[in-house]
Amino acid sequence: MNIIKCKAAVARAAGEPLCLEEVEVAPPKSGEVRIKIICTSLCHSDVTFWRLKQFPGMFPRILGHEAFGVVESVGEGVEEFKEGDTVVPVFLAHCGACVDCEAEDGNLCGKHDSAPAHGMPRDGSTRFTDANGKPVYHTMFVSSFCQYTVVDVAHLVKVDPQVPPQFACLLSCGVSTGVGAAWKVAGVGPGSTVAIFGLGAVGLAVAEGCRLRGVSKIIGVDLNPAKFESGKKFGLTDFVNPNEIDGRAINEVIKEMTGGRGVDYCFECIGLSSLMSEAFKSSRKGGGKTVILGLEMHGTPLSIDARELLFGKSIIGTLFGGLKSKTDIPILAQQYLDKELNLEDFVTHEVDLQDINKAFDLLLQGKSLRCTIWMDGKK
Questions:
Q1: Least buried of 32, 41, 101, 113, by fewest C-beta within 10 Å?
Q2: pLDDT exceeds cutoff 70 at 19
Q3: What is the Cα gyration radius of the chain?
Q4: Per the confidence metrics, is the pTM higher than 0.70?
Q5: 371 vs 27, 121, 209, 348, CA distance in Å?
Q6: Is 119 left (phi over 0), alpha (psi -120 to 50) or beta?
């Protein structure tokens, strides 16, 4: 196998526009797969890593982790994948064979570390070099803002080729995370009530998961009033804008909307400890469950009233919505093909690779849910 020269959007410095450059992508080593990226999309996690100046920030690097591609070549010992397979890469490993992967609960692989890394998971080295022969680092074990990338088999999932690329790539992270949190972590059911704090793609994916499970009331909490209209496509029934509640606490408003009871399930999808606490307060006594999906963006500790735990309320965090990628993503893909799972309405914009910085602008301005980035310039 040969080195491949191709185009990549390289992050050279924290918070600065990405640079379209020619890079070299090395052949896959043992247990690895090289894939041709057809399209990718921009997630808020990419923005987080793009902005990082301190560890685990490292530059230059290739961002991106939501993608759809085709297997170009496989490394030594790889039997699960072959050339031509349609796949989506995922940031969270699923080896499928360790004690943790075989367990019914949880989705953190015991064989592969889930902590952020700058290289491949098995040896820590990079498969990218720039035009000057200097290393370019990986992000979240995927690095999909490149026409070709190398991914470990534990971070790769086969998907039905009937799923259009721009929708299949959503299953790499955001939509799967939200739907999984509703189904596998919270276990929402028919007739239950829900409040979702933050109506980005993940929050709306939570709503979609709740809609599919027959939840009776889905309350969205967001500062952007436009999110209510878009949220209705995913089952949102009610909306709370914290700027328009006359200084009252959000939990007071939500309790008022539920007859003083509070909701059965709360989901925090932003990453602010203050909202995590507010979500917990908004859940009902005697079984209310709060699920934390957002990484606290300032490192602020979470503070809750421990006495409320004695009344049967609980709080739990999750990565990737509790999904085991190799088994659960194909199920979601089939639900899309069966016209049950709504993926189309998450894609609000499309750009070519050369215009990738527009995708950042749209997301930061709150104008897009997911922007599809086509790698070969053809939409």
A1: 113
A2: yes
A3: 21
A4: yes
A5: 29, 28, 21, 6
A6: beta
